[in-house]
Design a protein that fits this description.
single chain, mainly alpha, three-stranded antiparallel β-sheet, 58% helix
Length: 117
């Protein structure tokens, strides 16, 4: 889903057990309020909450957030589409069909652009 090549611009995840929301915000290049919103939208993203409702994310949470970020910001999915993609997995026949359809539309638009130029 999220390849290492897509993460080149993001910092390496340190070998720690828990991360604060500020650290995760920096590691994933996402604002803290966006992380809190994603917790509501993606049920498999649930950091541990301790004293005073402080959030502590684990390594797998950081990886999941990077996957969500990749789906939303780099691949152009909607929240619902990203949620379904995480549930179904990236290698379904449906996602392959969608990718082929998008590629066809891009080719068609490029030919229209050449015609207009």
């Amino acid at each position: 889903m999220l390849e290492a090549s897509q993460n080149n611009e993001l910092p390496e995840i340190p070998s720690k057990r828990y991360f604060t929301i500020g650290e995760v915000s920096t590691l994933c290049d996402v604002k803290p309020h966006v992380l809190r919103y994603w917790e509501q939208e993606f049920p498999n993203l649930s950091p541990i909450k301790r004293r005073g409702n402080r959030r502590y994310y684990q390594r797998q949470d950081v990886i999941l957030i990077r996957q969500i970020r990749g789906l939303l910001y780099e691949q152009g999915y909607t929240i619902g589409g990203a949620r379904q993609c995480l549930i179904k997995g990236p290698n379904t026949k449906e996602s392959t069909k969608q990718q082929e359809l998008v590629a066809d539309v891009i080719k068609e638009l490029e030919s229209v652009l050449e015609t207009l130029a």
